[in-house]
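In this section we walk through a basic example: taking a raw amino acid sequence and producing a predicted 3D structure, encoded as discrete structure tokens. The instruction is simple. Fold the sequence below.
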Amino acid sequence: MATLADTLWYERRLLEYLLFKLVSANLVLIADDRRFVGPAIAEVDAVMAEIRRAEDQRSEVVSAVASEWSVPPKSVGLEFLVENAPESLRPTFEDHRLVFMDLVGEIEILTRENRRLATVALDGIQGTLGFAGGDIYDAAGRATRTPDQPIRVNRIL
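The resulting token sequence is shown next.
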């Protein structure tokens, strides 16, 4: 059980770090400083990769706990742990449950906002290319001529 509690602490710190990196990316997108968008996204991706590794580790630890308690691994969630863990660990698991719910909510909101900002920035780039009479690229990476008017203006009108 102590190993599971430690694993959850590690995941919690990773989610807090992910939130920090998403806030950083959000600030870069708001500042519209395109030279830092790539590095900001790379940092978010690196944290996500570490979270996936931590999830795999947690899965192994949960399987061991489930085996010890003779229950299916899928049943060993935070709610189950709050109700069934030794009394001394219940407050820890309850705290994790509440913090994880808050973190996931904040991460979802920031992710949506960052996607929105990135889309607005991409529309701006495409609009600029349209004004310049340059080429834009389709989903397959083929260069296509831009219309006489920028795409952004066409969408608004």
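Looking at the output, two observations stand out. The mean pLDDT is 84. Residues 2-117 form one domain. In the next section we compare this with other chains.
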